[in-house]
Each structure stands twice: as structure tokens, then as C-alpha cells.
## 1
Amino acid sequence: MAAAGGTDWPGFGYAALVAAGGLLGYVKAGSVPSLAAGLLFGTAAGIGAYQITQNPKNVWLSLVVSGTLTGIMGMRFYNSRKFMPAGLVTGLSILMLGRLGLKMMGKPHES
């Protein structure tokens, strides 16, 4: 059951894109590490989105996942200068960090 804040659709979309990116890396290049990382981080992001759906102030798992992906994929993008996939994931992760930061600074919800 969704909380008063509603379902965290952007969070679930982010999770799906991260997992799909790992799967795509495996299909196109046979990269098992891409598959494992995509599924691990995608699943963690999905759990984080579920937690936000239940309690809009419970952003910590989503914050850790998007922050970690910003760092890892940001370094890959910096070193390779290739937008796909590192630049895209870095950009989406930065947007998620901003969104989560705004959620943390938002007004407390009335119960």
C-alpha cells in the first residue's frame, strides 16, 4: 500500500534503467560484471524506491545507490569520455541525488 506521498515512479524507473543497462551490457558484450552490477544496483535502487513509497523521508538506500553509481560511473565517464553507458548513468544518478536532496530538505509530512 502506497503512503500519502504516492508511488516513487522516478525511483522505480531509475532502478529499471540501471538493471536494463546491466542486462544490455551482458547481451551486447558478454560482460558478466555489467550484468551482476546492473542487477545488484538495480535491485537495490528498486528496494530504495519501495522504501520511499512507504515512507517519503526514508531516502537513505536510494541515496547510497545513486551516490555510489555517480562516483563509479562518473570516473568511467571521465576516463573514457564515452556517453554510453557511463555518461548516461552518471547524469541520471546526479539527477536522482538532486531529487533525493530536495526530498530531504522538504517540509515534514503531517501524519
Note: The longest helix spans residues 32-54.
## 2
Amino acid sequence: MFGLERRLIVTLCECAGYFALGLVLAIHGPTLLDLAHQTGSTIEEIGRIFTARSFGYLMGSIFGGHIFDKSSNPCIILTLALAITGTSTFFVPFCTGLAAMYIVISFQGLTMGLVDTGGNVLLLSMWGANCGPYMQALHFAFGLGAFVAPLVAKLFISTDSESIASAACAAPGLNVTAAPEVVTFSSNVKWAYWLCSMVIVPVVAAFAYLAATNPKGGEHSARASQVIVPHRREGWYRRTVLLLAFLFLMLYVGLEVGYGGFIFSYAVKDCMVQMAPHTAAYLTSAYWGAFAAGRLAAIFLSHHMSPAAMATADLVGCLVSSILLYVMRDSEPVLWAGSALFGVSMASIFPSAFHLVEHFVDVTGGCVGVCNGRKSVSHLAVLQSARSRTHTYAYRHTHTHNHSQTHLRNTQRANQSKHQFERRKWRLKKGRGVRDDSREGRDNTHRHTRTRTH
């Protein structure tokens, strides 16, 4: 299998690997409250797992690009990276402390960065300038995995997540009065992570087989035989195109992952749209489902539209959905519709941008690695901003709740004191009236007695 047949099989295995990648990446959002309870931490503290994952992703992306450029058998690297990703996912439920959780998630992010970079590099090496539909299919598989993840999480997350959300969201150092009722918290979220790790097992086996049957130079034949297009310049032109692409993708991926990672917590804890945890899981799945549907449609649209036209249409859709979500943020139907529109619009931006860059310059493994590294930086920036927003909301919500309770108690005390004062005043007045009547009766009796005496 040196030709088209092997390339199609490798592409299919890459799609399976990206499906597992989307499954693992999106599982953290719906299970965030359960992980907070598992580690005994607040949402702000458990939210740092996204930072830990992005840091590992950054390291894996930067070094992975150079590793894949020099490797003669990239399927071996993908096999090892996917195996470590599955192992780290399996051990997440065993982490009862924040430090252990951060370490495991960092290793998970490291290998995910290797898989992401290696998948793009291998696809570009096999298909060259004709990679458009295959690139869209690869990223559709990622979106499909991200769509399935919340549905899997819904089966195992605790139904009492809403009951412990106030305690989980409370900022450190705040004195929050505990609810009088005792809530029994039961979570089977470990099965969600174990199921995700089991999905990776057949993908690892498939890449191990491809690595064992790898023909020398087989995967790189398309790039080696590709005719060099005259308008592909080098030097400052190439660096400028890559820099603009990196900055664009840095902003894009931060929004994509940031929205998918925190929409569940936002929907559960927002003061206006307080969804049940299972409903919020469906909302997260709706976002990733629309994201996957957009990438599925992009596979066919890429045959009839240029990458620039597709990216422009997507950016217009992102702008419209963002305006709707901000202006009508207190409406639940708009939250559903806006999330779906935002997911569809975000879907094909990344593969279209990659394909567009490929039309102008040769994208090597080092370029893909640095690009994915900048994606990780955007993860860190956007997720830190979202986590700070959650922390601010938690403080504001808790402070407002405590202030309202204090005001209610003071009002009740004032009304009680006023009532007691009026009652005491009435009693005194009544007592004075009785004493006055008794005194007047005694005076009249004394006067009547004196009259009879005289």
C-alpha cells in the first residue's frame, strides 16, 4: 500500500484519532463541577486544569512539529502520543488533589499537542495542495467527538451539581452561610473518563499497525512530488503570511475552546439563565453539535467555495451570533440559538485558514508546531479571562446573597421592634386609662360621701 489506498487508510485513522481528541478535550467542561467536588476545590481552582492542559499543549505543539519533520515513521509518534493521552484520561478520576490533577492534565495536554500537530503535518505531507476536503474531514471528526462528549458526560454527572454549585463557586475567604438542608452528592463521572480512554484503545492499535507496515517515505511522497507553485515566495513574504496566520488562529482557537469549556458553568450559575446541569450539558452538546455539522457541510462546500470565501462567511456568522448573545444575554432561547449559530460559524475557520495559507507558502512541521503553540497561548489568555469572570460573578453573587439576607434580617428585626414598641405603648396607655378611671371613681365616691355627711 504505497499509493492512494494507504493514504486513505492513514487519513481515516487520523480522523478516528481526532474524534478521540475532541472527545477528551470537551469532556472537562460538563464535568467541571463534579471535578471540583472530587478535589474539594472551587470553580476558580479547578478551572486551572485548562491552564495546565494548555501549557502541556504548548510544549507538545512546539516540539512536536520538529519531531514530525525529522521522523521517517510518524505513525510511531502518533501511537505513543495517543497511548499516553488515553492513560492520562483514565487516571483523571483517581486524582483527589489539585496538584495531582494538574500534573495528569498537563501530560494529557502535552500528548494532545503532539497528536494535533502530527495529524496536520501528516495530512499536508500526504495530500499537499489537494488537502482541502481531507483537512475539513479531519477537523469534522474533532467536532464530532466534541459533540458526543457532553452527551456521554450527561449520563454520569451528578444530579446534585446544582446544589453544590454555590459552595463550589464561592471565592476563597468568603464566609458563606451553609444551607440548612443536607445534600447527598453522588457522582459516577469516573465512567465518563474511562469510556473516553477506552475509545482511544482501537485507534492506538490501528496506528501501531500502520507503524509496523510503514513503507519508507510512503507518507511523504505527495509533498516530495508536489510541483512548486511560482507564486510561493520565501523570505519576508513567507514570514509575514505565517505571522498573520498565527495571530488569527491564536484568537480563533481561544474563542472556540473557551466558549465550549465554560458554557456549561455559565448556564448553570448565571443569575438570569439558571439551567439544570443536564440541560446545560445539552446546551454544550448543541454548541459542539452545530460545530460538527458546520465542519461536515464544509467538506462538500470546499469543492465549490474558495478558502477565503468560506472564512469570510464564517466570520460574519460569528459576529452576528456574538452580538445576539451579548444584547439578549438574559434570554434562554437566544442562548440556545446563539450557541448553535456560533458553533456553525466557528466550524470551518481553522481548516479554511490552514488551506488558505497552504496556497501561498509551504507549511512545514515546524510551522504547524509554532501555530499550535500560539493556539495554546490563546487558550491560556481566554480561559484565564473566563475564569476571572466566573470568580467575579461568584463573589458578586455570594456578596449580593449575603447582603440581601442581612437586609432581610434587619428589616424583620426593625418590624418586630416597632411592633413591640407599639404594643408596649398601647399597654401603657391602657394601664394609664384604667388608673385614671379608678382615681375618678374614688374621687366621685369621696365627694358623694361628703355630701351625705353634710
Note: Residues 365-453 form the longest helix (89 residues).
## 3
Amino acid sequence: QLIAADKMLGFLDLHYYGYYTVLMPCLIVESIGLTHSTYLLKDILVKVAGIDTSQEPEEKKMKKDFLYYARVALSISAVIFSAVFIIKGLAMNQTNANTGAGWNKLPGYAAVIVGLLFLFIMACSEGLQVSA
């Protein structure tokens, strides 16, 4: 991906295409609060590590008002809701992960383990991409 970054097939040359297809959807999702569960994780890790946040620059400090915590609650609720239904569907053989071609004999618990393994590999790959 990094090697092909300069060969974006003219995507950036199209006027306002990236604005309406990438930037605006990202800003909408961010303003709704569906990505705020990571902020709670950051707050917990800051407390556990004992990091002093009083030295933060003012322009980077987040206002932790009612809307901040409401967005965090919405985000965590969405993550839990999604996880419950995905794991339930895998465990009860309600998806093609258990009934598709080549997977007919895969038990539900194994489908959950394989799904978590794939998720772990994908997260590690994403972390490597960000760090590169």
C-alpha cells in the first residue's frame, strides 16, 4: 500500500471527489460519536500509567462535557451490540462461516475462535501499516 500510494489512479485529481467520499463521511461518523470508545480506552490507560495531562497543550485538550461521555456511551453500546450478535450468529451456526462450502463441519465455537484470530491478524496488520 505504501509503495502504491503515489499511484492513486487520479483519485486526488478529481475535484471534490475525496471531499464527499472520504472526508465528509469520516467527519459525520466522528461527530455522531461511533468512534469514541477509543477515547475511553485512552483515558483508562492514562490513569493506569499515571501520566500527567496538565502539561497538554490547550489546543489538543478535549472538552470532557456531557456530549463527550454521551458519545463514549453510544460508541461502547454499539461495539457491545455488534459483538453480541456476531458472536451469537457464529456460535449458533447462523452464518455462512459454518454452512458455506468447505466449512460444513466447523463447529460454532471454532468459528468464533477463527473469527477472533482473523480480527487479531487484521488489527496487527493495521498497526503495522500505521507505524510504517
Note: The longest helix spans residues 66-91.
